[in-house]
Amino acid sequence: MCNLEEVISSTSSIRSLFLDGPAGRLEALLNGGAENATHAAVVCHPHPLFGGTLHNKVVFHTMKALNSFGFPVLRFNFRGAGLSQGEHDRGEGEVDDVRAALDWLDSEFHLPLVFAGFSFGAAVGLRAACPDARVRAVIGVGTPVGPVVADSQVPRAYEFAFLQECSKPKLFVSGARDQFGP
């Protein structure tokens, strides 16, 4: 077992890269893990049409928490966000973006995977992560379970019935005043 200083030292590297996504390349950042990492993780960002990117502060802090366990953690921009190619696909094609990120993590590290997503990232990512046998646990932060916002130009209604069949350990974190996750 390594001490906290060793983990911080071994996890401080950040690598910028592009993943091959189904709609073109996906911009990504990888925070390195400990040499003896037990898992690798992916963290997905909130709605790109409302400013969500891999640089979101909740996504960053979620990455830091997972990285503190020594896990290598991948963050990426969904299609059409940041430097990622393609166009926003209303949460449909973005599920395939998550699958591409999980595939890359698996081929790079050959470790059990952990999925985490914030808001839109949770809604679409859980759909990819739950049926994937390589993913051992899922985390939803600010999972948008509330009704569609009436004044929104972009419909944001998500169905989560599939979670009843998802037997993986799950952690859901919600704020007391989250308008989309009451």
Description:
The chain has 182 residues and is an alpha/beta fold. The chain has a single domain, classed as Alpha/Beta hydrolase fold, catalytic domain (Rossmann fold). The chain has 4 helices and 7 strands; from the N terminus they run αβββαβαβαββ. It has a 7-stranded mixed beta sheet, with helices on both faces. The longest helix is centred in the middle third of the chain and has 17 residues.
CATH superfamily: Alpha/Beta hydrolase fold, catalytic domain
CATH topology: Rossmann fold
The percent range for helix content is: 10-25%
The total domain count is: 1
Please outline the helices and strands.
Blueprint: H1 4-10, E1 14-21, E2 24-31, E3 40-44, H2 57-67, E4 73-76, H3 93-109, E5 113-118, H4 120-129, E6 135-141, E7 170-173
Parallel strand pairs: 3-4, 3-5, 5-6, 6-7
Antiparallel strand pairs: 1-2, 2-4
In short:
The protein is an alpha/beta fold.
Key phrases:
182 residues, alpha/beta
